[in-house]
Amino acid sequence: MHISVFPIRQVVALAALALSSSAFAAEQDGQTVFKDPKTGELRNPTAEEAKQLNDLRAAQRAAAVNARKVSGAPPANVATRQSNGVVRAFLDEDSISYSVMTRNAAGELVLQCVTGANAAKEAMVTSATTESKGHQHEVQ
Amino acid sequence: MKFNKRPRPVALAAALALSCAVAGSAQAAVTIVINNINEAGVGFNDPTPALPVGGNPGTTLGEQRLNAFTYAANIWGQTLTSAVPIRINARFSALACTATGAVLGSAGATQAFASFPGAQKVDTLYSYALANKLYGQEISDTPGAQINANFNVNLGNVGCLTGTSFYLGLDGNHGTNIDFVVTLLHEMGHGVGFQTFTSGLSGAQLAGFPSIWDHFLLDNTTNKLWVNMTDAERQASALKPSGLSWTGPGVTAATPTVLSPLAQLRVLSAGTDSLYEVGEADFGPGVTSESVVGPIVPVALQADSPGVACTPLDAANTKAVNGKVALISRGACGFAVKVKNAQNAGAIGVIVTDNVPGPVAGLGGVDATITIPAVRVTQADGIEITSSLRLRNGKTAGTVGKLELSKTLLGGTDAQQRMTMFTPNPYQSGSSVSHYTTAAKRNQLMEPSISSDLTHSVTLPLDLTFELLKDIGW
Q1: B68 backbone φψ class: left, alpha, beta (φ>0; ψ -120 to 50)
Q2: Percent of chain B residues past pLDDT 90, beyond the cut
Q3: Please, are residues B294 and B321 in contact by the beta-carbon 8 Å criterion?
Q4: Contacts of range B24-28, beta carbons closer than 8 Å, 24 or more positions apart
């Protein structure tokens, strides 16, 4: 679950550096890295770019929380005690598993299972550069 | 789960509830109820005519989708046991996709529970369906479906992984398409409890409670369970390849049945007997129970070659490796090229030594004409093996290499034959920890990348999914 914190660590910007609402970013351990849309190269973002991504993710998260509130749904990922004494937490899309399939540069179909809507969006792009199991090794 | 996407009343009125228990003659151990929450004409109700395929008798696209879903649910229904039915809200809808990538579908538990009678562990979160089973009755004071499932209605259409569709047959003959049943089995597996709610990324527990999984996840380098770790320790352990083991007794007892032995290199030299970890090749016959044994001979760099064994071996190299195990350093050309050149010179096996530091890795490449086994060792091991080929006086040591299968180590387990989890470094958001390792030697349903050779089994002797679910209480 990645509910209460969003440590942006290694982030791959998947859209233009001028971030749009359709841009999304990957949380991974390490540092923040951008894929420059002009050169295609990974590089460290500037402080401003990192802040933009952090802000975007925070906004997306806030929007999801707000949408849940507006719909009347109970807050997710919060433990409450039922009248029978049992502890219960409603789960949201951060706990949902997604199957994501992409075609990589070699034309292979790569199927991944990830947890969380953001991870699913990220997998749609990042896995396009990965290889299928059985062909995960360097060839040279 | 998004509660703001609950079916509207009109959709509910059109919903069709199917009990999987009525399908087939097998006695279901738990009733799984599929709530078809698609509106008329959409998804499971799509009236587009379809020809029966692979044992699926449906005559419309919607019928075939529902049949496949029911088939997969029935497999779980016949495997799991519970007095409380499992209800799945299922639908097809437009999910994210591009021409080269698509979200196929999603599934997950809707609620999690802790601190209830019947739970094996106190103050520990269980997924809804499992909590119901252990509690023996509906546990939630806000009852609903235990699992939400949603699949991509546009898959295969132009602009949505164009040309690649769900295969709706029940026989596994999916060809180049996606076996819908396997996808369903995998996602339902997560829905019934194959996941931790604790974040491997931050190490934080959901709402301050450990998940039942965390009682079985062991950092095999520190010998500490996740449930007993700090957030920082969990975060660190999620980044240790092969470092996170599943300690449940069911899975551990079953690994020798399901998984194949690891390949290894045994080197016999001047009275010593050393074992080396190896990476296997994607080409050739692989290392089998019929060990390949022979003197290890290094291949020398030829003047006509940019790297060792990148061109046909000359007379001297050919004479050296004929009938022996060739030792070849990595670099300048493909692994398959090197191995093929050694094979053409009469080598009976190949050891490729890495030319950069790092963990052991496999040999990628494709060549259907390669018939000898090849393995890869680390740079450090390669240096050690090379140094063992000569005695101090410069004479050959008569070092022998044996490409063999381990009698104790299994593909995907730790040294105690405990299954290891998927813990790549860097962390793969959403995939790490809640899946089995991709090193499993027999592909497993609950690996993060679903393999094309998977069957529809979730049980022994092919699959370890149900064993893990039993460990956590199913």
Answers
A1: alpha
A2: 79
A3: no
A4: B24/B74, B26/B74, B26/B78, B27/B78, B28/B74, B28/B77, B28/B78
A116 touches chain B (CB under 8 A): yes
Domain end residue (candidates: B170, B193, B216): B193
DSSP state of B53: B
Query: Are B141 and A3 in contact (CB < 8 Å)?
Result: no
Question: Residue A4 in contact with residue A61, Cβ under 8 Å?
Answer: no
Query: Quick check: A101 and B105 CB within 8 A?
Result: no
Judge if B220 and B296 occupy the same domain. Answer: no
In this structure, are residues A109 and A131 in contact, taking their beta carbons and an 8 Å threshold?
no
**Digit-coded pLDDT (tens) for A61-120:** 677 667 666 767 778 889 999 999 999 999 988 889 998 988 877 677 778 888 888 888
Cβ neighbours of A122 in B, within 8 Å: 429-430
Count: domains in chain B: 3
Cis peptide before B461 (omega within 30 of 0): yes
Task: Determine whether the interchain pair A137/B100 forms a contact, defined as Cβ–Cβ distance below 8 Å.
Answer: no
A109 and B CB contact within 8 Å: yes
Residues B163 and B299 in one domain: no
Q: Are residues B181 and B215 in the same domain?
A: no
Token pair for residue A108?
Answer: 């292979």
Do B387 and B448 sit in the same domain of this protein?
A: no
| Domain spans of chain A, in order of start | 1-91, 96-133
pLDDT single digits (tens) B76-115? 999 999 999 999 999 999 999 888 889 999 999 999 999 9
Only one residue has tokens 């951008």, namely: A34
Q: Are residues B170 and B51 in the same domain?
A: yes
> What value does the CA radius of gyration of chain A take, rounded to a whole number of Å?
18
Supply the mean pLDDT for chain B.
91
Domain boundary among B193, B212, B228: B193
pTM above 0.90, yes or no: no
CB contact under 8 A, B186 and A114: no
Whether A105 has its CB under 8 Å from any CB of chain B: the answer is no
Q: What ipTM was assigned to the predicted interfaces of this complex? A: 0.77
For chain A, the first-to-last Cα distance in angstroms comes to 38
Pairing between β-strand B16-19 and β-strand B32-36 as defined by DSSP bridges? antiparallel
User: How far apart are the C-alpha atoms of B134 and B116, rounded to whole Å?
Assistant: 9
| Residue of chain B with shortest Cα separation from A140 | B334
Token pair recorded at residue B299? 């291949």
| Residues B91 and B184 grouped into a single domain | yes
Q: Does residue B274 sit in the same domain as residue B348?
A: yes
**Which domain, by its residues, includes B125?**
3-193
Residues B91 and B239 placed together within one structural domain of the fold: no
